[in-house]
Design goal:
- It is built from 4 helices and 9 strands; from the N terminus they run βαβαβββββαββα.
- It is α+β, with helices and mostly antiparallel strands.
- It has a 7-stranded antiparallel sheet with strand order 1-8-9-2-7-5-4. A two-stranded antiparallel ribbon has the order 3-6.
- β8 and β9 form a beta hairpin.
Length: 153
């Protein structure tokens, strides 16, 4: 999903959660917010999404105030509405009703048509031993690659 200009990638989310499924959705932004997004002033680190009624909102997504926005700037942490079809919203609501599943923004990018898109993941939290296993796996892959390079030279 998401062939376009990557603005923000939520690396910490991949460390803390297992991504079961991802879905692309639009984001409702004001004029100064879109300018700030294009300039790269976004942080997804502590953000999450919630289904409330027939709408999905993302909370904690920080969009820095635009430098030249003066009085038109909005609150950087205000909740932003996500644009999804009804069936997708119902599907997400059912998924989050299950024990331990949550909605986490994984990537924010601008698609080739110039629209800001958010990749939303249905995720399950990792336990500490899962995180340790991922770190051990990454280290072993790194060592294997290093050994492979030494053999080739």
């Amino acid at each position: 999903m998401g062939a376009g200009k990557l603005i923000e990638n939520n690396k910490k989310a991949r460390h803390d959660y297992f991504f079961l499924e991802t879905i692309e959705c639009g984001v409702v932004l004001s004029g100064t917010e879109i300018k700030s997004v294009r300039a790269g002033g976004v942080n997804l680190r502590d953000s999450y999404a919630k289904v409330s009624g027939t709408e999905v909102w993302v909370y904690g997504m920080h969009i820095a105030p635009y430098d030249k926005g003066n009085r038109y700037n909005t609150d950087p942490l205000r909740p932003k509405k996500l644009l999804l079809h009804k069936r997708e919203i119902r599907k997400l609501a059912q998924a989050t009703a299950q024990q331990g599943l949550t909605l986490i923004p994984s990537r924010l990018y601008i698609n080739p048509r110039g629209l800001v898109k958010l990749e939303l993941a249905v995720a399950k939290g990792k336990k500490l031993y899962d995180k340790r296993a991922d770190i051990a796996k990454r280290d072993s892959e790194r060592n294997m690659e290093r050994i492979r390079k030494e053999k080739n030279t």
